[in-house]
TrEMBL record:
The active site is at Y158 (proton acceptor). InterPro entries: 17beta_DH (IPR011348), KR_dom (IPR057326), NAD(P)-bd_dom_sf (IPR036291), Sc_DH/Rdtase_CS (IPR020904), SDR_fam (IPR002347). This is Retinol dehydrogenase 8. It holds the Pfam family adh_short. Belongs to the short-chain dehydrogenases/reductases (SDR) family. One of its GO terms (molecular function) is all-trans-retinol dehydrogenase (NAD+) activity. GO terms for biological process: estrogen biosynthetic process; retinol metabolic process.
Amino acid sequence: MASGCEQKVVLITGCSSGIGLRIAVLLARDEQKRYHVIATMRDLKKKDRLVEAAGDAYGKTLTLLPLDVCSDDSVRQCIDSVKDRHIDVLINNAGVGLLGPVESISMDEMKKVFETNFFGTVRMIKEVMPDMKKRRAGHIIVMSSVMGLQGVVFNDVYTASKFAIEGFCESMAVQLLKFNVKLSMIEPGPVHTEFETKMMQEVAKMEYPGADADTVRYFKDVYIPSSIDIFEALGQTPEDIAKCTKKVIESSQPRFRNLTNSLYTPIVAMKYADETGGLSVHTFYNLLFNFGSLMHITMSILKCLTCNCLRRRTISPD
């Protein structure tokens, strides 16, 4: 127990791997033991990696609960099993990706992305928000993405799901402020996870029925190599995102939006500098189709553009 104050109860979704696992372990292993972490995942059979990483914190400052954010019953049962249904910090991390030409993606696949990334988050917020409002205290954190601020080619559906949750939370934040409940978005750029690596390898081999040959070629031969370049140049680790998230939790006045990667600040700023949208659309077009072979140079330019004043607009893991 933290000396002088009670532990904060932190519930995190999607903890079997990646960012969720790292946030859970970082908070559970806090030297001052300020947090009691409830790490959740859909399938507890996948708990081994988390349990190993948590070490002696498991069973002390970290406990596990099953939770499927796509199920009303599962969400209710999970929160009901928490003492007094009291959650101080809710971290909505569970999410799924979807990549490829939209012509080849079924409507059911698209709905699954929204069911997890949008409705799953909304379902969690709806379940914990009434108690937070009643107590006039609490912090809701949503793992969004820079793709919730800027559209990215061939990530159409995933981007749409993140835009949706950004709009929802931007609206909710105003109401919650009246109840002294904080709401924060964490907006990473590319993050090196096994999920991303595996997805890149798989999509390069797949067939894309319904999409024309030119579109498939642009996706496989232009987008995928460029995307790998971007990941190598700009990618952060799940540990970086966990450290950023911990900073947001511990801030006395947390920001609503928290870009974790200062290299993306110019990209987002460019979008808002031109209300017609033409600047960002044509810039991304040229980066992908006209300057693809110069991607490494482009990444270097982005790094040069990121001066100290831009870094102040982001939350750094360091």
